[in-house]
Amino acid sequence: MENPDPREPEVKGLLAAILVAGPVLVGLVYSLLGSFSVVGPGATGFSLRHIQVVLADSTTWWGTLWTVWIALASTTLATVFAMGTAVALRGERGVDRFARLAAVMPLAVPHVVAGLGALLVLSQSGLLARLAFAANLQTSPSDMPVLTQDRYGIGLILALTWKELPFLALIAFSVIARRGPALEETARSLGAGALRTFRAATLPVLWRGLLPSSIAVFTFVAGNYEVAALLAPSSPLALPLLTMERYTDSALGVRGEAFVLVLLAMLVSLCGVAAHEWTANKVETGE
Amino acid sequence: MWRGDPSINDYVDRWVAPRLLRDYGITLRTIDGQGPAIVNQLVVERDARARGSADLVWINGETFNNLRKEALLYGPWAHRLPAAKYVDSLSPIVMRDFEQPTNGFESPWGRVQFTLIYDSLRVPAPPRTIAELGRWIRANPGRFTHDQQFTGTTFLKSVLYAENGGARSFAGGFSEKRYTEGSERLWAWLEGVRPYFWRRGETYPASVADLHRLFANGEVDFTMSYNENEVITKVRQGVLPRTSRALVLRDGSIANAHFLGIPYNARNPAGAMVVANFLLSAAAQLEKLRPEVWADGTVLDVRKLPPELKVRFGAIDTDPRGIPRDTLRRYEVSEVAAEYTERIASDWKTRIRANPR
């Protein structure tokens, strides 16, 4: 059927963009006004007080750095494991198909359940500790290495890696399936060994295909509240936890600081997107 | 209302709601939300000039203080309730909310008292004062901590009172000078015992529910509650070990009441008043007090009630885990101005939590 109005697709596109971006823009404007104490709980009229307090507070910066560390570590681990899984399970045998299905099953597990599961397994009175106790390897909960609410966020990183892996693996499976074996067969026919083929043919394809999804995972993980609430320590306090704490502080005058923290979290996510654009650009220009 | 306790939810959903529908034709729908979230919601509704999403809110302390400051409560109305005639009007704990007169802007619902909870098997001779607790913590490294929310802050206030000669030192409104001097002793006490806390005081359980979990799993030997009877309900639910017991600190055990308020933009304030009146009735207060229901203290003066009701209050099944009424009364102390709570909560975060050593 012929399109009666050539401008119609543009209008539809614009509408879709507004629908997607609208709520974010409204949130952004409200957060900006909240940061300047114009709206929101405890607002006192235009003031830079909230911004000054948040930026001068070392808790903010430790929390931000810690959150970036958690997001980077879990995204990197999940990406590497997703690549490994995709390469290992690329075959067409029934067992490979089944393994691929099994690998993406945790996709259906909610984040909060993943967090609770990690707590039940890894905490000092968790399943591992109980097994160690039963095997006479330890006598009290404090003998168990600290893996939850720990300074380096090991339990949190493990939980997030486990939870994000299936999503990235799903993307990696489709990247490999789309590209097919032709490129690698060519490399091998030109005399490349298995390692060389992987490095020169498989890895770049997987990497380029996975990058946008990894960036999405990074921004999601950096803003995730519920898993951090279960597994993160109280110091340094992860950015999402700090934001929520300020927003529900018993002192009304402090709640406006949450808006500044929201904008800071947005900046972290934007850095992730900028990193993607920069890398994608480098890949395209062949640097 | 706060929906974090199944026994409270059951009382409201299965006992209160059907009776409101049967007797008054009122359909009670509960919405999750507590304290700061209620204030934020009402501020946003005011900014948006929206009609209210709640007709009745469960509040106290700094939430009441904030809602009054922001003029987000409807009223006065509470003194007009017929059931208010039996309220324990001589009790400063029921008539004032963190020292602030309620002035008819909220109606009392229940009263509770702060207790420590311990396992009588693991700690047969528990400490009874803050000084004894300090010695116990040093002698048992890694076996004590407190949470980062309301209950933990109440524990810190107990230390503040004990280290400064009692709650009376802070009565009569907020004073910056008294706070600064008094809180220095609190921080000194904490710095002294913190190295012996769970995880050396480098991290703290997020909520009292997390602390209960650590206690039930044997990671720590104490938990705490801002309801003297929570030990009874939580043991019945199987959350806490059967050998759990509660104790009041002899330096003073902080008590307060919780209340019901009506938002300024409530759609049905008259219906809300009927509900508040029903919740204040002797029948509803009696049911709420039962250990197998919620075990929440009554705000009524039982002596004022007609004889047959007085008997029923007296006949409530007492649980051996409960603390005798006269012990509770002997050591009870009121809350002081809400600003003390706010300052302790915020200074603890910057002075103690953010500086693990």
Number of domains of chain A: 1
Structural class by helix and strand composition of chain A? mainly alpha
Beta-strand share of residues of chain B? 5-15%
pLDDT averaged over residues of chain B: 93
Residue share in helices of chain B?
A: 40-55%
Count of helical regions of chain A:
12
Secondary structure layout plus pairing:
The complex is a heterodimer of chains A (287) and B (357).
Chain A (H helix, E strand, L loop, with lengths): L7 H28 L13 H8 L1 H31 L5 H11 L6 H12 L4 H8 L19 H26 L2 H8 L4 H30 L2 H6 L7 H9 L9 H28 L3
Chain B lengths: L5 H19 L10 H13 L9 E3 L1 H9 L22 H4 E2 L2 E2 L5 E7 L1 E5 L10 H10 L10 H14 L12 H18 L14 H9 L5 E4 L4 H7 L7 E4 L5 E9 L7 H12 L1 H8 L17 H8 L10 H7 E3 L3 H16 L4
Parallel strand pairs in B: 8-9
Antiparallel strand pairs in B: 1-8, 2-3, 4-8, 5-6, 5-7
What features would you highlight for this structure?
heterodimer, A: 287 residues, mainly alpha, MetI-like fold, 12 helices, globular, B: 357 residues, alpha+beta, four-stranded mixed sheet
Description:
The complex is a heterodimer of chains A (287) and B (357). With 287 residues, chain A is an all-alpha fold. Chain A has a single domain, classed as Orthogonal Bundle (MetI-like fold), CATH 1.10.3720.10. Chain A is 71% helix and 0% strand. Chain A has twelve helices and no strands. Chain A has helices at residues 8-35, 49-56, 58-88, 94-104, 111-122, 127-134, 154-179, 182-189, 194-223, 226-231, 239-247, 257-284. In chain A, helix 1 packs across helix 12 (257-284) and helix 11 (239-247) packs antiparallel against helix 12. The longest helix of chain A has 31 residues, at 58-88. The two termini of chain A are 44 Å apart. Classes of the chains: A mainly alpha (287), B alpha+beta (357). At the A-B interface, helix 3 of A face helix 2, helix 3 and helix 14 of B.
